[in-house]
Automatic annotation (TrEMBL):
Family: Belongs to the transketolase family.
Domain of life: Bacteria
The protein's name: Transketolase
The organism of origin for this protein: Streptomyces fulvorobeus
Cofactor(s) annotated in UniProt: thiamine diphosphate
Length: 231
């Protein structure tokens, strides 16, 4: 599979128009815009999944653990043809499928329902183990978390397990906008490195740096990319 969509993919500048279509309350705007560039690079150049292959066993899986402020996620999905952009103006409305937290059963292309922080990375670990059990070694699993989300203990258990287990299919993207409550000796990257992960730190607005970090080989180890974004 390739990461081409069913039709022409609008340019990155089109995302501004799509974002402005979502005007509801409780938008968590900064949470959304901090993820926009990384999501665009993933869906445009890295993820092997299209609107036609969302149910294909061999697809890549993307799990949005940072489920609050999903405007950027919805905009990117619309830009790539997963959902109709006509749905965007209804964002957050009672009868809209596009809630303030994504619902896997309502949002085309969404792998999980998310919003309760700390669940995405453990679910991604389980997804990789499930793929292994089925003998599927090619699909990659990506999960996007926030820096503050790493305060949750469930993530540390997942990090500690995935490294020694050699979950090479697992990729974690951490959006670091300096919103975490607790500091870590050596920073976020050191937590993953200590557990045996391959780690990269990049500017979360630099598309080429993001792409390079996303596609760096990491044989035998899970990969973590820490994307720093000014708060």
């Amino acid at each position: 599979m390739t990461n081409t969509s069913a039709g022409p993919v609008p340019g990155y500048r089109e995302l501004d128009r799509l974002m402005r279509l979502m005007t509801g309350d409780e938008k968590h705007g900064p949470a959304a815009t901090s993820t926009l560039d990384a999501l665009w690079v993933l869906y445009s150049r890295v993820l092997r999944v299209t609107p036609r292959t969302v149910d294909d066993r061999g697809r890549d899986r993307f799990l949005l653990s940072k489920g609050h402020g999903p405007m950027a996620y919805y905009a990117v999905l619309a830009a790539h043809g997963f959902l109709d952009e006509a749905l965007l103006p209804g964002f957050g409305a009672y009868d809209s499928p596009l809630g303030h937290h994504p619902d896997r059963l309502l949002v085309p292309g969404a792998e999980i329902g998310s919003g309760s922080l700390g669940h995405g990375l453990p679910l991604a670990v389980g997804s990789v183990l499930g793929l292994r059990a089925q003998g599927l070694a090619d699909p990659r699993v990506w999960v996007l978390t926030g820096d503050a989300e790493l305060d949750e203990g469930s993530n540390h258990e997942a990090i500690a397990y995935a490294g020694p287990a050699g979950l090479e299919q697992l990729h974690t993207l951490v959006i670091d906008n300096a919103s975490a409550t607790y500091g870590r000796p050596g920073g976020i990257a050191s937590r993953f490195e200590t557990a045996g992960w391959s780690v990269g730190i990049v500017d979360g607005r630099d598309h080429e740096a993001l792409h390079t970090a996303f596609t760096t080989p990491h044989p035998g180890r899970p990969r973590a990319v820490v994307a720093t974004v000014a708060p």
